[in-house]
Amino acid sequence: MEMKPRPQEQQATLFYGLPANFFASLRDLNRPDEKEIVSIAYFYVMENVSLDQFTSALTASDPQNVRVLETTDLSSGGLNMKKIVSTTASGINKTNYLFWRETNAIVVSVMLEEEPVFDPILQTFRIK
Asked: What is the pTM of this model?
């Protein structure tokens, strides 16, 4: 696995239509059945974004196909977060995790079908 920081000049983006900084990606460098590096999760920071704003933007990103199925409270290593599971156009559910630091929402967007790989990694999250 590799946590790869994004170059500063490539961080500014829109995520579900909301301004965000895409600051890192978690990648599997050595998956035996794949020829290329596999992305596991992307990490974003958003200023002053609430859970309601995030879920509204998520649904608005594709109103025909995306709806929030579940919002769950989680805690790992003293870090309180929200797990948001939504539908997608592909029919595969999508998971995002949100937690807040001061006025910033940190979003961990897990790639489709990578939840089983990401779950043990999530258990290592800690507050410093």
From this structure: 0.91
